[in-house]
Amino acid sequence: MRKALFLTLSTAVLFVSCNNQEDNYVAIPSDNYPNVEATFGNTIDLTNLSNYANQVIPPYITKDNSALNPVTDKGATLGRVLFYDKNLSSNNTISCASCHQQANAFSDTNVASNGVNGTTGRHAMRLINTRFANESKFFWDERAASLEIQSTMPIKNHGEMGFSGVDGDLNFDALITRLNAIGYYKELFEFVYGTEEITEVKIQNALAQFIRSIQSFDSKYDSGRALVANDNQPFPNFTAQENQGKNLFLTPPVFDGTGSRTGGGIGCAGCHAAPEFDINPITGNNGIIGVLNGTGIDITNTRAPSLRDLVKTDGTTNGPMMHTGVITSLQAAIGHYGTINIAPGNTNLDPKLTPGGNGQRLNLNANEVNAVIAFLRTLSGTNVYTDNKWSNPFSN
Predict the structure, then answer these.
(1) Cα–Cα dist 277/177, whole Å
(2) Residue 384: helix, strand or coil by DSSP?
(3) How many independent structural domains does the chain possess?
(4) pLDDT over threshold 70, residue 34
(5) Which residue of 174, 351, 368, 396 sits 20 to 30 Å from the alpha carbon of 6, by its own alpha carbon?
(6) Where is the Cytochrome c domain (predicted)?
(7) How many C-beta neighbours within 10 Å does residue 2 have?
(8) Which pLDDT belongs to residue 293?
């Protein structure tokens, strides 16, 4: 049966839910969709869809922001095509995946990503476990009220994908016209929604389902967390150094009256709580206020991706960190939080970083730094980098 329509008054966005596979799904012979078969070959089989809807989620993971637009196999399949399709840019050269690359935890190794008319204004955020977070707003400055809204904003950006309707660009309606002329989209939208009609809301829902399906729970951390009752217990599969780093991460610091740490841990979990390691929605600026293009300061950046897959399991970075890409290693990230300078004009600095009104000084020694790095590396898995269901379907 067709699921209901949901209207969220807070964001004024209509979510048209796709059919779940559980809802009397009947496999359709592939010869009913010749354009899909001709375009994608074996990478997309509509008679045997990849599993997006029923992936294994550990029982200790409790956050889930997908209720209004649940992940379905059909919807995420369409979303995968849209995510990788360069037809969604005005000059057919850029896709969502151009800036969010599977090999780099769906981020970019460039500080600024290339668009059709220049480069992005901020570093491309990693798209790992976006479903498992309390924070539902998107972009570093949280200007998108939901992932659904966010998903088409780069398409309508002059610099990124070029369907802005300004500065000589075609508008979004021109993209809809283009997609309507592509045979595999007629078939895919009919397959997912029961009609060939293509709308922005349907595009948004499918893209959001695919992005929310990208999950990473095969890390050393997850193997250890499954063996204990809570995060505060030592993980039996961890080294002594990794357990020390975990304790430092989870334990709040003790400060003196000048903002200097005198005991406890370093309190990373105050903003990035285990086991999801997502960003607390009530978080201010982290002290990095630079801009990529132009001059001045930018204090609006208060969102961050999950800390999962900050680096690969071998410690290789998935690209620079922070909205400016100014941090290029875990050591540098820890160093930034080790000494917080209250810059003139930064009226949005998170108060957790300013105990007693002073910029925190964590006074970490080398052993503590190395322990935190060792722990952060346990948050990285391997499957997210290689799983075919998140790969480019046009590479057949």
Answers:
(1) 41
(2) helix
(3) 2
(4) yes
(5) 174
(6) 74-183, 240-380
(7) 11
(8) 86
Residues 197 and 225 in one domain: no
Looking at the DSSP bridge assignments, the partners of residue 311 are: 317
The answer to whether the CB of 192 falls within 8 A of the CB of 206 is yes
What is the per-residue pLDDT for 294? Answer: 83
User: Quick one: 184 and 231 in the same domain?
Assistant: no
Residue 228's domain comprises 219-380
Q: What is the pLDDT of residue 396?
A: 63
pLDDT in tens, 151-205: 999 999 999 999 999 999 999 999 999 999 999 999 999 999 999 999 999 999 9
Residues 210 and 129 grouped into a single domain: yes
The reply to whether 17 and 166 lie within a common domain is yes
Asked if residue 50 lies in contact with residue 77, where contact means CB atoms within 8 angstroms, the answer is yes
What digits encode the pLDDT tens for the residues 123-165?
A: 999 999 999 999 999 999 999 999 999 999 999 999 999 999 9
The answer to whether residues 245 and 200 belong to one domain is: no
265 assigned to some structural domain:
yes
Q: What span, in angstroms and rounded, lies between the C-alpha atoms of 190 and 15? A: 17
- DSSP-derived secondary structure letter, 282: S
Q: 208 with 65, same domain?
A: yes
* Shared-domain flag, residues 27 and 95: yes
Q: Name the 3-class secondary structure at 255.
A: strand
CA distance linking residue 18 with residue 2, whole number of Å: 8
Which residues neighbour 43 within 8 Å (Cβ) at sequence distance 6 or greater? 388, 391, 393, 394, 395, 396
Q: Please compute the mean of the pLDDT values over residues 102-119 and round it to a whole number.
A: 97
Angle, alpha carbons 226-229-382 (nearest 5°): 20
Q: Describe the crossing of helices 183-193 and 172-180 by its angle, rounded to 10 degrees.
A: 90
392 part of a folded domain: no
